[in-house]
Write a structure and sequence with these properties.
Layout: H1 4-19, H2 24-28, E1 45-46, E2 51-59, H3 65-83, E3 85-86, E4 93-101, E5 114-121, H4 124-132, H5 143-153, E6 157-158, E7 162-169, H6 180-189, E8 193-199, H7 202-207, H8 210-216, E9 221-224, H9 238-249, H10 256-274, H11 278-288, H12 300-306, H13 326-360, H14 370-384, E10 388-389
Parallel strand pairs: 1-6, 2-4, 2-7, 7-8, 8-9
Antiparallel strand pairs: 3-10, 4-5
Length: 392
């Protein structure tokens, strides 16, 4: 006996035969393609004018190890640039989402090798964690389907903010069952910019329609050498910033089991950043000193700033705080918060000096890597939306 889905397919196919082949395509288009059913998109939410949403769509097929290395080693550089954007003098509300595509190890019946690693989040430790979990494997790189999936699944906001998709990979942009032009047109209609980053020769990228994809998405086309190693500029301030980061970590008070896991991940991502260079660790530390490093879902200090009633959740408090009165608990939290702000202020002052030093040495860094490609388009597109990079 046929189930409902099988019956629908059989009935539609029969109608196509009866009506003739000229009618078959529009009728068959009503049937969901097997293996490509995305989750229902969340209803759009209005956002303030300084909201920035960035979706990274990374090719993780077998030839893309270098791209993933650049993403891991340049994440905090990119996030710090976003964090320094200002609109009407205000810091942006920053959200990042992450997808991988083209990895046959991720194949499922729901999607063609397109895997959401994280929806839009303010938890940048989570983004770092997901990046460091990536591996590569041979597959089909369906850019159009990846763009469509991100449009369908992510909680894109409405309003005057900046909404950007970055697609990075190396196979022709035309691969797959979703026309990239229609996917990009859908993005543009919703006020979302699509930037393309071809890993390899620029002319090959153009012939592979990566430039056409950027034009269709009203974005920028860039080509990069994905195998170029990230060049770091060490500064006289890195060690001081990283030492202060250890003090900063001591001010995070985990709540419940989730808090313990998030606290552990905080240390893990510190370690991951440091595996590349102490200068990269300083980039991460600098981001952690900003208001966009948010932990209100697991840290008592940030949670208290958001909602003072959190002190009533006594069972989630650390053992040494559970027997305190409400007043004693609040005094403890406020003291820790003051200590955190003092450490962050020191880190921010040192970071200004760190960045000034880097600017003087900037010629040493690579110009055709993922980070610089993203920053180049980001500055231009953010500027068109009224954002500007905070001056030192």
């Amino acid at each position: 006996m046929l189930n409902a889905k099988q019956f629908t397919i059989a009935l539609t196919a029969g109608l196509c035969i009866w009506l003739g082949s000229s009618h078959s395509k529009p009728l068959l288009s009503l049937i969901p393609r097997f293996g490509y059913q995305t989750a229902a998109a969340p209803d759009p939410v209005a956002a303030g004018p300084n909201t920035i949403q960035v979706a990274l769509l990374l090719d993780t097929s077998s030839s893309m190890d270098g791209l993933i290395e650049q993403a891991k080693s340049q994440l905090w550089k990119i996030l710090n640039e976003l964090n320094r954007m200002r609109k009407n003098g205000e810091m942006p509300n920053l959200e990042v989402a992450l997808y991988e595509y083209g990895n046959s190890g991720r194949r499922s019946s729901r999607q063609f090798e397109i895997n959401q690693l994280s929806g839009f989040t303010t938890d940048m430790d989570l983004i770092s964690q997901k990046l460091f979990s990536l591996t590569t494997n041979g597959g089909d790189e369906f850019c159009g389907a990846a763009i469509k999936t991100s449009l369908d699944e992510l909680a894109w906001k409405q309003g005057e903010g900046l909404r950007i998709i970055y697609v990075a990979g190396n196979e022709p942009f035309t691969q797959g069952h979703v026309d990239f032009r229609s996917a990009c047109a859908n993005a543009v209609e919703r006020g979302i910019i699509v930037n393309t980053i071809h890993c390899g020769n620029c002319e090959e990228g153009i012939s592979g329609q990566w430039l056409a994809g950027a034009k269709a998405g009203k974005g920028e086309y860039n080509c990069i050498n994905q195998d170029q190693r990230t060049v770091y500029i060490q500064t006289p301030y890195d060690d001081q910033i990283n030492a202060l980061n250890a003090q900063l970590n001591d001010t995070y008070v985990p709540m419940g089991q989730k808090g313990k896991e998030k606290k552990e991940n905080q240390y893990v991502q510190d370690s991951n950043a440091a595996t590349y260079d102490k200068a990269n660790a300083a980039e991460r530390s600098a981001f952690k000193s900003s208001k966009n490093y948010k932990a209100e879902d697991w840290d008592l200090v940030d949670a208290y700033k958001k909602d003072k009633k959190v002190v009533e959740k006594r069972a989630e408090m650390p053992a040494d705080m559970q027997d305190l009165s409400i007043e004693e608990m609040e005094r403890r939290i406020e003291a820790i918060s003051a200590r955190r702000e003092a450490v962050q202020q020191q880190m921010q002052q040192l970071d200004v000096q760190r960045r000034q030093y880097i600017e003087q040495q900037q010629s040493q860094t690579g110009k055709d890597d993922l980070g610089n490609s993203i920053l180049q388009s980001l500055r231009k597109q953010a500027g068109e939306k009224g954002f500007e990079v905070e001056k030192m």
